[in-house]
Amino acid sequence: MKAAIFSQYGDTEATQLTSSHPEPQVADQQVLVAVQAVGLNRIDAIIRAGYLHQMFPVSMPAVLGGDFSGTVRAVGAQVTGVQVGDEVYGQAGLLMGGSGALAELAAAPAAKLARKPATLSMAEAAAFPLAGSSAIQALEEHLQLQPNQKVLIHGGAGGIGSIAIQLAKHLGAQVVTTVAGEDRDFVRSLGADEVIDYKTQDFTTRAQEFDAVLVTAPEALAGSYGVLKTGGVLVALAGEVDAEQAQRHEVTAVQQMSQASSEQLNRLAELVDNGAIKPRIDRAFPFAEVKEAFSYFEQQHPKGKVVVTL
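Structure (tokenized):
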């Protein structure tokens, strides 16, 4: 089958296209999916670069990609809830117990997929699994964001940030976000109440103002403890939280390891189909240009998600 693989760790040049990769075998708790679109994530580039190889070694050649949308081709013996022909979305990444998403066929854990939101195209659905689940996990589960609370979302123009802004507004919060100046209009279109240009403005001058902070970039973490009210909560998706800093500022700091689950994906589909959230695709590439897609994703600053279509 056709697949985007890597046979050695490296940068985008390590990405290879093949038409002869073996089809994945489906375990009892997996689903075989005919993939139609794949959303790129930072973890995809991190795995290919080899930064996690000591903790999570992979057998090569390995298939790239995690987030996907597609149609169920077969189900494992212990799988319930989906059947052949269903349109689904979820995660099939190597670290998530899948076979890799950037291929004609992918084996995905049944616990990490759900039926695709009815109102979305396949490309739009592929942009959602990890970013959308990350936003739900952070805002609803860890921050437990309430109406009229004030939240600072770093990196509001990115894949996670753009969804988090929409979710926070749906939950009734007041949203402040940090972006580069050229992204101001984009995040305002998502619902941001106030925009801070991190290139020219210092968000740390807003001391003791926020009930919650979502950190999506490691360079923003150190200064984020001090902008929280006493008793506020910080969730870090990037960088390592500092317990001493949190204690000194009398706030709670949570280190989030994001993973999509069927429950979160079903919640996300509900929000999407109710019109509360919509994915923003910066650019879509055909499968033949997957190397170019990774180059664009890693070297530019996409507004929303980058998707590869099969």
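Residues 51 and 139 are 28 Å apart (CA to CA). Helices lie at 42-49, 122-126, 129-142, 159-170, 184-190, 243-249, 262-273, 290-299.
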